Amino acid sequence: MSDDEHEIRALIERWAHAVHAGDLDTVLADHAGDIVMFDVPPPQDGVRGIEEYAATWPPFFAWQASGGCFEIVELEVTAGADVAFAHALLRCNSPEGLATHPSQRLRLTLGLRKEGGRWVVAHEHHSFPDESRIVEEDEREVREVHRRWAEDTAAGDLDALTAPIAEDIVSYEHEGAMAYVGIDEVREVCRAGLEASPEPVRWEIPDLRVVASGDLAVSWGIDELTPGEGETVRSRGTRVFHRTEQGWRMIHQHLSFPAG
Question: What is the Cα gyration radius of the chain?
Fold first, then answer.
């Protein structure tokens, strides 16, 4: 690493420590008068000039004083004779946010230039990845859960069949108990269903509908269950799913035959 790169790394680390400490003078010390920053919050055109840049920090310091963190996880620096850039990943979140999203990172890019023989930050760009969900992809993933269920049912694979079912599932089945609560009870229902047919069971929902929003999804349709060469049994099915780090998990199921 060159002397310039060492100097720039020290500058950035000093700046990050100052941000965490709420030390505005040190935050501003190595920034150009015509700094342009593209920040996470508005304005869309960014802030321009050292005065506008300085005005963005007090609200952030106030948030951070409640327990937020701002620390460099990864930093890379590339320096030329008079121009340099750096990119970094930082932890920037509240304690609650870190517990919920421990892998989330603030992305930082800095552009620097030499002024009077010293490096200054001329451009700063902060962003978080856009984690908003694409509804069509979520619905496709839930449909994929159903497709695998059909394969696992035909294969008689109880472990695979129950893998997408949440530990705290509540299931209203066609018959038996008023409600089956927890994966162990529902697993036994699935086991009994598989063992009731000596031949592979075909299960499908020809008119499956899926709606997803955020971390929840609902599916419904007419279940068609065919044991081997036997007669197809049709019933109504509604299922609720919750997104987890392991994928979609069914948290509720309601099956029924029409009365009369």
Answer: 28
